[in-house]
């Protein structure tokens, strides 16, 4: 079939070469979810995340049997240092009650501007060697941002692997909905997904937010497979924050708002969010890290066709719970000067003008927002999965600046204290930049935050 297609469309057709490559990749992914042979103490599904400080990295991996130790050997020219951690047993909630061991090791005291090599495991079995780079202080940083990536129809995965292996990415922000789903087929689909992203996640920190596809068995696969540290050093994969260059990045669980069974978690998360934002806005912190960015799953603004989330003006996440609209996040984020909000869930790409409560600000220049007077929202939920894309109606609301039903991912560049840059790269065919935005601000505090407004009053 592949040879026939090449004969028909020509050997130099980049579109069909990309389509064929993606088809083959998806067939391999489907097979990998069903059967994967590995020794029971062999480390696999290796992935990195940020630690409690900028000079820490966390290495997480899986074995099928318990090992005598959980260790990482690492170094620059040779692996002459060793860090030890621990393993936790995890039992899938499906009929087979599959068990595995999830290992976690924190590497501390790393040096900026250095590339490290490492392997993880134990004397019983080691992983292959991987590398990661510690960026130099003051360097611009490039992040891939996307949600809703599955093992099947993972359209963006080849490009993401290429960018990672080419040294073009410093980290990944995954906005929820993994594998479709982590728990499926007694967790074998989750295993296949974690191996599928290993050429990315073993080389750059893979930071996550929880989505609705992680709900099964009380989110247990998501809670167990990843290691997101709060700045206190405690693991909390549902709401946490980290500092990265000139940015403070906050991940939170929008899904708490959408299920009555998790409404009890909303007050705790909300109070943590407000405390975290207050600390991020202390003068010494906001001057050092002027950009505050959030990542979650469900959008506050979207305009997809026939989507319940997009047709309800009063989003629970945006305006809060109950008749008293408690724990509303749009007001909270505006109050504390959140610059940029990333979400997924809708399998498409959409960028808003600066917006608050459906009022649009600063819609003069499509590709350059200078001192925006409200937060900017980005929906990037089209990395690729078996549910395909979500279409848009013909009418485009005035708050929607750019939108497209195209597979792809965002590249966010944290350039410096005054400029950040965003691109959307479509992967529906050969990767191509199809949207570009620069946000510039002259003061660390956005003009709409309570801190700037207090100054002017």
UniProtKB/TrEMBL annotation:
UniProt enzyme class: hydrolase
Keyword terms of this UniProt record: Glycoprotein, Hydrolase, Membrane, Signal, Transmembrane, Transmembrane helix
Residue span, Purple acid phosphatase C-terminal domain: 374-436
Keyword Plastid attached: no
Ranges where the Calcineurin-like phosphoesterase domain occurs: 142-349
Catalytic activity as recorded in UniProt: a phosphate monoester + H2O = an alcohol + phosphate
InterPro entries: Calcineurin-like_PHP, Metallo-depent_PP-like, MPP_PAP, PAPs_C, PAPs_N, Purple_acid_Pase-like_N
Transmembrane segments: 15-33
Domain Purple acid phosphatase N-terminal: 43-133
GO molecular function: acid phosphatase activity; metal ion binding
The protein's Enzyme Commission number: 3.1.3.2
Family: Belongs to the metallophosphoesterase superfamily. Purple acid phosphatase family.
The name this protein goes by in its record: Purple acid phosphatase
Organism from which the protein derives: Ixodes scapularis
